[in-house]
Structure formats: C-alpha cells, structure tokens
Amino acid sequence: MFAWLPTRPKLPALIHQAFSADLLAAYRLEGDDGAWLVAAKSGLVRVANDGAKTPLCTWDEVERAAWDGQERKFTINRINASPTQCVLAEPANKGEREQLDQLARTLRQQVERAIVVRRDNVSLGDGALATITIRRRSDDSLYCLSLIEADAALNQEQVAALKQAETQTKLSVGLTTLED
Fold first, then answer.
1. In terms of domain of life, where is this protein from (predicted)?
2. Long-range pairs for 34-39: beta carbons < 8 A, 24 or more residues apart
C-alpha cells in the first residue's frame, strides 16, 4: 500500500531568490496584489508580487507584537514608531494553515529572542521613569536602549541617575561601559 503524504504549498520562487538562506517563514498577505509577509533572519519584510522588498522592521526594533488568530492580523509595535498591522490571507487548505502557523511561531520566537535580554525600570525623580533594556541584534550583538517617560527634559541629576542605571544594567550582562 502507498501512503500519500500531503504536500506543503510551495513558496513563490521570488521569495526563495530574494532571501535564500535568510528565509525563516512566509505567508500571503490579504488582498489581491499577491504580496507576502516574510520573516527573515534580519527582520520582517513585505514582498510585492514583482519581488520588491519593503522592510517593516528589524527584530530588535520591536517593542511588542501581537497575533490575532481570528482576524489573522499581526500588530507590530516598534520602538518610537507607529504600530504596523499585517492582515494575512485566509488559508485555503491544511498546508496553508501550517504555513500560517509557522509564520506566527517564527515571529514570536524572533521577537522574544531579540526583544529583551534584561529590563530594568528606574525612577529618575520628579516623576521621570526610565526603562533600560538590553536587546539583541540579528547578529547576536547586545546593546542598551533607554526609554524615558518624563513631562520635561531631564535635569542634570536625572541624567546622572540615568547614566548610573544604564552602567549597572550593562555590567549585569557583561557589556562594556564608557568607563571601562
């Protein structure tokens, strides 16, 4: 007896050609323009049916990401940028459903991998708050990012407190500081 295994839908050649070894997962975007959402090692990219690539974000630029399975919609919240929403096409069969699920898993894994190695929330006084994070780039290098919530520009004492907190956060993961 022969067992027939279901075949996975093939990605368009232009996706393979454009990304080769950098390709992690891809799925069709909703609409009739034939565009695809591609998860590459470097980040998230929209690929038009003519092969034109529009980078949406690198993984370490993502502050938060959410997947709405009912709407088939990814919402990407980037650091200091407006959210990007990507609505994916309705899967036509089981193979496409698996492809969609693979993209969702890949997006989650890449965002989690890059988003935060460490996060410290620090009060800088006078109501100013800093969130200091150590993030990972696609080349695995680490860097420090500080997001400040304040009603006004930081004063000298607050800047000094921020620098001290950044130094402590960097040292906690083995990053060098300017004082080294």
1. Bacteria
2. 36/11, 36/12, 37/74, 37/86, 37/88, 37/103, 39/103, 39/106, 39/107, 39/110
Each residue's pLDDT, cut to its tens digit, for the chain (180 residues) gives 555 544 445 778 888 777 878 899 999 999 978 899 999 999 999 999 888 999 999 999 998 899 998 999 999 999 888 999 999 999 999 999 999 999 999 999 998 888 778 889 999 999 999 999 999 988 888 999 999 998 889 999 999 999 999 999 999 988 887 654
Report how far residue 3's alpha carbon sits from residue 1's, in angstroms, rounded to the nearest whole number: 7
Distances (CA, A) of 29 to 18, 35, 93, 103, 156: 17, 6, 16, 12, 49
Q: Give me the numbers of helices (H) and strands (E) for the chain, helices first please.
A: 3, 10
Cα 132 to chain centroid, rounded: 18
In terms of residue numbers, what domain contains 138?
A: 118-172
- The answer to the question of residue 8 being in a domain is no
